[in-house]
Model the fold of this input.
Amino acid sequence: MKFGSDISSWYWWLSVVFVGIAINLASSYVKPPMDRWIERRSDRRRVAREARDKVFGAKVARISVDPTLLILAGQEAAQCEIRSQLTFILVGVNLILLFIVTSLPEPRSGVIVFLIYSLVVILPVQLMILMKELKDEANLVELYRAARERFNNRN
Done:
């Protein structure tokens, strides 16, 4: 019932009103600089995206002209896909191994403790590598599909 007595007191209402006014004043002073910062950042991102699109278009144009380059781009995309799948499998096996090793009864030997610590350290690194490989795979597949579509439309 302390909340009920607090809500009925004048100092609780005064503090709520004071905090509300302070938040409104702070937001009115903070909003314009935040808007300018977001606008600058979005402009930089738009320019960077346009530059990436221009490079992507040049790569697509170069690959779509030569059937050999198109085949090589397809092979590179397939190899990247296989590499990311193997990394995904490796991460899964390491997670299962970590679960099994941590489920072992006490006392654990020094080798088991070392294995646990090394898996805990290695797994985040492997996840970062997996994320990079998945991103590379998506980029290469997109490049191959765009070049193949352009090649097919040309012929």
